[in-house]
Automatic annotation (TrEMBL):
<protein>
    <submittedName>
        <fullName>Uncharacterized protein</fullName>
    </submittedName>
</protein>
Length: 68
């Protein structure tokens, strides 16, 4: 069975039936920008924080296993 027999209408003809004030506007154009490069100090602080957290967790585990 053809799509015409099933009542199919192309999208353009469907949109022409909708009044202009009820139509959804097209999506705005979004400019694609490259991600900003992180400064070296931020990367260093991230790894410092990871190391500090791991050290603290290791200390807590050691206290839980061998502590008083």
């Amino acid at each position: 069975m053809s799509s015409i027999a099933l009542g199919y209408r192309p999208q353009a003809s469907v949109a022409s039936d909708i009044p202009a004030e009820l139509r959804i506007p097209p999506r705005p154009q979004v400019l694609q920008r490259a991600a900003p490069v992180e400064p070296a100090w931020r990367e260093a602080m991230r790894w410092s924080w990871i190391g500090l957290s791991a050290s603290m967790v290791a200390g807590e585990v050691a206290l839980a296993l061998f502590g008083p």
